[in-house]
C-alpha cells in the first residue's frame, strides 16, 4: 500500500484546507517515462472517479486508478524543503534510483 510521511501528510492537509475550492483529496498516478520507466503525477481533485482505489493517510484521501495502484504498492511519498525549493519525493523500493533526472523520483 502507498504511504505518506507525516511531513507529506501535513503539507497536503495545508494545501487541501487552504484551497478556495472544495478539494476531496489527492489523485496519484503512474505513467511510463523517466529513466526508471515510471513517472508519477499528483493533482488535487474535487471528487474521485468511480473506479478509483481509496487510501486514507491521516486526514488526506488519496485516489488512485486501479492500474496505478499495483505500481504504487510499497511506495512512500515524502515532502522535502530545501534552499532550491520544496517538492514531493516518491520512494519506490522496487525501482532503482535515478541520479540524472527527477521524473521518476519527484513530482
TrEMBL record:
Residue stretches making up the Core domain: 2-97
Stored Pfam families: Fe-S_biosyn (PF01521)
UniProt-listed Gene3D superfamilies: HesB-like domain
GO molecular function: 2 iron, 2 sulfur cluster binding; 4 iron, 4 sulfur cluster binding; iron ion binding
A Gene Ontology biological process term: iron-sulfur cluster assembly
PANTHER family per UniProt: IRON-SULFUR CLUSTER ASSEMBLY 2 HOMOLOG, MITOCHONDRIAL
Full protein name: Probable iron binding protein from the HesB_IscA_SufA family
UniProt organism field: hydrothermal vent metagenome
Lineage: unclassified sequences, metagenomes, ecological metagenomes
